[in-house]
Amino acid sequence: MSILCGLPLVECVYCLACARWAWKRCLHTAGHDSENWGFATAEEFEPIPRLCRYILAVYEDDLRHPLWAPPGGYGISPDLLLLKKTYEDTRGRAPPYILYLDHEHEDIVFAIRGLNLAKESDYAVLLDNKLGKKKYDGGYVHNGLLKAAGWVLDSECEVLRELVAKHPNYTLTFVGHSLGAGVAAMLTMVVVQNRDRLGNIDRKRVRCYAIAPARCMSLNLAVRYADVINSVVLQDDFLPRTATPLEDIFKSLFCLPCLLCLRCMRDTCIPEEKMLRDPRRLYAPGRLYHIVERKPFRMGRFPPVVRTAVPVDGRFEHIVLSCNATSDHAIIWIEKEAQRALDLMMEKDQPMEPPAKQKMERQETLTRHNDEYKAALQRAKTLDVPHAYTPPSEYGTFDDEGDENSTRSQGESSNKSSVDESWDALIERHFDKDEHGHTVLKKE
């Protein structure tokens, strides 16, 4: 009888716990994801609105007579457009792209368009993946996006190598949106790993801007390549937060709000420690730029602010329950809000008169990025992220005892191998084989 009397109490406690969890989940906003990040500077954020316009230019059939140009145009000179590939040219193996030589900014830009909802080939690329299906450079990557990136590099390798050699002071920038952002990130990884194919290009000359990217690489790779890959996310965008297999989303595209809500509830129940230690779980790549323009319980858009970091834990882990989760994924909105954010940054900055000050600010930004990059690598090691990589110390010391033991064992093995080699040489010099295969002493 006492047990039966206790059941209503247990049910009440359970319902209250569920209500508290649901209330906290509904109060979670996009601003919470980046509230502890630093603010981006105008100098480091300057390329992003311009590169968004380059991506929009891929959608045009004729850049000399554009149909959907944003205010101010695309900023592209048609005479400097070196390549423009369509679906017919790629045969569905990769999204359409352009190659543009930007003399004004000393940049070689490779821009890739986003997902086309009317093209089955784009779905084939995006859905060609399962958790743990493809390993690359000590981590896991999206199989379909990696195959598309490999095909693009094989197709345009000669052109890129000639441009890199002809313009040694120019950067090589890969940029894309949505599906194209994933291909651009994978393409950057492949180029960095095979720099000899582009004439041994310096790693510092290669960079990537993934606009609203799909999750495409494991956490250790996302942090390790943060020095060359940058991801841009607008407020509540669902795709960089979607850890579920993408096939579940696009198979249920017409019930997307319901599916996102259910997956959101499920992902919230998974402890973050468990997610971080799953080596197959994919993440948005590289350094993150988060454009925040809305506040909870307030109507309309506010002046956007841009926060940036190389986070390890709390890296867009959960979907935000928002009516703007899909509209914030549109490249048109991202370009517009990114330009607004840049204009506000420029207004706050003092007039840049002396070049020495510009150079000093640029150096401070590079130093801050380098420090954040190293801190993220160390943080990944501290959290036991699978296959996390820690760079060697600047002073030639070891970061932890494991590295020291590893180095010591390598030294011992090399010494042992040298002793073995010298012993084999000694035997070969003084002994020989007779006709029966027996070892005998050589005659002097």
TrEMBL record:
One of its GO terms (molecular function) is hydrolase activity. One of its GO terms (biological process) is lipid catabolic process. InterPro entries: AB_hydrolase_fold, Fungal_lipase-type, Mono/diacylglycerol_lipase_N. Pfam families: Lipase3_N, Lipase_3. Residues 9-75 form the Mono-/di-acylglycerol lipase N-terminal domain. Residues 379-422 are annotated as: Disordered. Residues 407-417 have a biased composition (Polar residues). It comes from the Eukaryota. The keyword Methyltransferase does not apply. Residues 109-244 form the Fungal lipase-type domain. Keywords: Hydrolase. This is Sn1-specific diacylglycerol lipase alpha. It comes from Glycine soja (Wild soybean).
